[in-house]
Design a protein that fits this description.
Elements lengths: L12 H12 L7 E4 L9 H16 L3 E6 L9 H14 L7 E3 L4 H13 L3 E4 L3 H8 L16 H13 L8 E4 L14 E5 L13 E3 L1 H11 L4 E5 L6 H11 L5 E5 L3 E2 L6 H9 L14 H7 L3 H11 L7 E2 L1 H15 L2 E2 L1 E2 L2 E6 L7 E7 L9 E7 L1 E5 L19 E4 L4 E9 L5 E9 L16 E2 L2 E2 L4 E8 L26 E9 L12 E3 L3 E5 L1 H4 L4 E8 L3 H5 L2
Parallel strand pairs: 1-2, 2-3, 8-9, 10-11, 12-25, 14-20, 18-21, 23-27
Antiparallel strand pairs: 4-5, 5-6, 6-7, 13-24, 14-17, 15-16, 17-22, 18-19, 19-20, 23-24, 25-26, 26-27
């Protein structure tokens, strides 16, 4: 995958730092990054920004990027998540080659380093509960107080730590803590926990370990072991950087440079794994891959393309302060890519029958339809045409206003790729609902040209009645009805802002005969309607299920001209 060339004047602050380090010969001019998610949930759009940044920088500076799973908490981690992470990174277009690692690969070394810290008097076994530790920790204006177990001898600490490893103590009864400074203005430096007891089998290491390193202890050392030069992470880890540095310096190991950037925040969306888990568990969405979710699995199922997500991440750029990005920008990037690559097809959501009174009764012909006007190499496809058709009910008005260019009695319109037709009669049922339009077609207007050269202003889509395929269409909208889902009244919850119309189902739709042959998940455009893709739910069933990827209108592009 090619990346846009970075010019010096357009380098963001991270790339500027990387360039400076490379040119100065730091780390032998190597550039080595990593993407290190915890396998405790599915990746979301925020992770996509980190993926694009870490792999992108490696590509731009002739370096390498690892994929590592920071699997230090077996209680929350699942093989399901680990497999999904790999699939998502590949889907976005990135390749870690042979550099796929786990923090658990280093458990033996991490344990040895913990023992080293104990021997050097820089770590101790603490009997305080987590609640008691919180009470001893102090706050931003008051220093903490030392644990009563802080001055244990090296010998006692080694003995207790070994018993922790052997599983002789229950969960939560003891921890191993770094001995740093309980009066530090940085709360993360107030004797942080580096090992805790967890009697839980690990997906990779099984029952070997009864103690597991904290994320803060494992993360930097894993970076070091892999030869990482630039440890790029989100802004919430800025206050963890002194601890990252302390471990590397006190262990005397290779010391990568941690650099923080603002995480991606999108309006009308939540990016918290905890909140997304609630949405799934409480049934507000239909799983992690629900097309309304900002997970990469959900976006993929909805029809988002990898290119559109990469383009979005590039446009958002890298910032030093948190901000909120408009979802319209994401949708703009999606429409731009789909306009270039998505095949075109015909379909109507609310079918209205059309009978061509002057068309031969038994004749069925084919017309050539363009697959993609943006791609001449995409060619054309045959579409059936006959006396009996369907148009969209929204494209007809019995008593239209001025400058109405779609169907109405006596007004000529063009059926795209086919003929000019004129409505001559409107048929209604006993309740006055329009159920059929009787029309005449001009046999000399095939393809949109006539011998007399006349033109019509209205062009509408249609499907042929006998070959059309029925389908269920799921119209997805924003999951939340307010830009900031967390903005609620006192005592409220972010779920109070869920949009009750985020999913609407249309079960009357008809599409042209070729649509069932489309690849599941691959987006296409129903002309004049929007972009859609086949959902796995309907691929092999009697009735197709289509997900609307995005509507046609691009308000962001218009607003930013």
């Amino acid at each position: 995958m090619s990346e846009p060339e970075q010019t010096e004047q357009h380098l963001d602050f991270i790339r500027t730092r990387v360039k400076t380090d490379q040119e100065s010969g730091k780390n032998d001019s190597r550039v080595h990054t990593r993407f290190p998610p915890e396998p405790n949930g599915y990746l979301h759009l925020g992770h996509a920004k980190s993926i694009c940044l870490n792999f992108g920088i490696a590509q731009e500076f002739g370096g390498l990027c690892n994929l590592r799973l920071d699997d230090t908490n077996p209680v929350a981690e699942k093989t399901e998540y680990a497999e999904a992470i790999q699939s998502d990174v590949r889907w976005l277009g990135f390749d870690w080659e042979d550099r796929f690692f786990h923090a658990s690969d280093y458990f033996d070394q991490l344990h040895a380093w913990a023992v080293q810290l104990i021997k050097e008097g820089k770590a101790f076994v603490c009997d305080l509960t987590f609640e008691e530790m919180r009470q001893h920790r102090g706050n931003l204006v008051e220093p903490g107080t030392n644990s009563p177990y802080r001055d244990r001898s090296v010998e006692e600490n080694l003995e207790l730590f070994e018993k922790m490893r052997l599983g002789e103590f229950v969960d939560g009864s003891k921890t191993l803590r770094a001995k740093i400074d309980m009066a530090s203005p940085n709360l993360n430096m107030r004797d942080p926990v580096i090992y805790r007891i967890i009697h839980q089998a690990h997906p990779k290491t099984g029952d070997k370990w009864k103690i597991y390193p904290s994320y803060d202890f494992a993360h930097g050392q894993s970076d070091s072991l892999e030869g990482i030069t630039h440890s790029i992470c989100t802004l919430e880890f800025e206050h963890h950087r002194p601890l990252y540095d302390w471990f590397c310096e006190n262990l005397g190991i290779h010391h990568p440079q941690q650099i923080e950037f603002a995480r991606l925040n999108l309006n009308y969306t939540v990016m918290s794994k905890r909140k997304m888990l609630r949405l799934v568990q409480e049934g507000h969405v239909n799983g992690w891959d629900d097309p309304r979710m900002p997970t990469l699995q959900g976006m993929r199922r909805r029809g988002y393309t990898p290119q559109s997500i990469r383009d979005f991440c590039e446009k958002v750029g890298v910032a030093k302060r948190d901000n909120v990005i408009e979802v319209e920008l994401l949708e703009h990037c999606l429409r731009h890519d789909l306009n270039l690559c998505a095949p075109r097809r015909l379909g109507v959501l609310d079918p209205l029958k059309v009978t061509l009174s002057n068309y031969p009764d038994d004749q069925v012909e084919t017309v050539d339809a363009v697959n993609n006007p943006e791609d001449p190499d995409a060619g054309t496809r045959p579409v059936s045409f006959s006396k009996h058709l369907y148009v969209d009910r929204n494209d007809f008005m019995e008593d239209p206003p001025k400058k109405y260019f779609r169907m109405s009695p006596g007004k000529e319109v063009r059926l795209k790729y086919a003929y000019y037709i004129t409505c001559t009669e409107v048929i209604k049922d006993e309740d006055g609902k329009i159920i059929e339009l009787i029309c005449e077609y001009d046999p000399e207007s095939r393809g949109g040209d006539t011998p007399d050269g006349r033109k019509v202003k209205g062009t509408i889509q249609w499907v042929e009645a006998s070959t059309a395929k029925a389908c269920e269409i799921r119209l997805y909208d924003r999951l939340f009805k307010t830009p900031d889902p967390d903005k609620v009244e006192e005592g409220g919850d972010f779920t109070d802002n869920l949009n009750p119309e985020s999913l609407q189902t249309v079960d009357t739709a008809l599409v042209e005969a070729s649509v069932p042959d489309m690849e599941t998940g691959k987006p296409f455009q129903l002309e004049r309607v929007g972009y859609f893709c086949i959902d796995p739910d309907g691929k092999d069933s009697e009735k197709l299920v289509l997900n609307r990827t995005v509507a046609m209108r691009d308000s962001w592009a218009k607003a930013n001209k």
